[in-house]
Write a sequence for this structure.
């Protein structure tokens, strides 16, 4: 579900849009930009669920400290705030029970 978002890039260095998928939904994101910021700008607000309660989580620190932005990128757990957008990324929400919960 896409919703309106207040997140916008200040001055994109490259405005080339590339195709990625988030939970099987197609998205166009700006190549080379921060994945977490681009997903937020595209209206993705839930990146993972907590292991204990299953509550939804979103990026918090945007600097690699909190791990609230964990997603799977091409099958590997990644911090979205520490990852650049590349063509063809297959991004999946990090969920409890998928074998990579802390
Ligand atoms: S938002 Fe905190 S580690 Fe990514």
């Amino acid at each position: 579900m896409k919703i309106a978002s207040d997140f916008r890039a200040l001055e994109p260095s490259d405005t080339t849009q590339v195709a990625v998928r988030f939970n099987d939904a197609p998205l166009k994101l700006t190549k080379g930009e921060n994945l977490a910021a681009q997903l937020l700008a595209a209206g993705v607000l839930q990146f993972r669920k907590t292991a204990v309660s299953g509550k939804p989580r979103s990026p918090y620190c945007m600097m690699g400290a909190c791990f609230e932005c964990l997603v799977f990128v091409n099958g590997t757990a990644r911090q979205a705030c520490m990852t650049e957008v590349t063509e063809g990324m297959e991004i999946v929400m990090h969920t409890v029970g998928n074998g990579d919960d802390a």
